Amino acid sequence: MDCQSFSGNPPAACQGKIPETLLQETEVRVNMIQFICGTMVGGMIGVAMMCLMQINRLYRHDREVDE
Questions:
Q1: CA distance linking residue 50 with residue 58, whole number of Å
Q2: Integer Cα distance of 26 and 37 in angstroms
Q3: Which of 14, 46, 54, 65 is an S-S bond match for 10, by CB 3.0 to 4.6 Å?
Q4: DSSP-derived secondary structure letter, 35
């Protein structure tokens, strides 16, 4: 594409601007990645909390049996 041949306003590609549709696709991808990462981190924290609660319950049960 020869940007010199356009009279008046050249297209966005000649002005060095990113097309609007590409910006929207990028925003959607970023939101999707944030959602996936948040779900994974939240799941890991949830599993870790459940493990800690289970360990606490088992420890308390062993102490009651010993007494």
A1: 12
A2: 16
A3: 14
A4: H
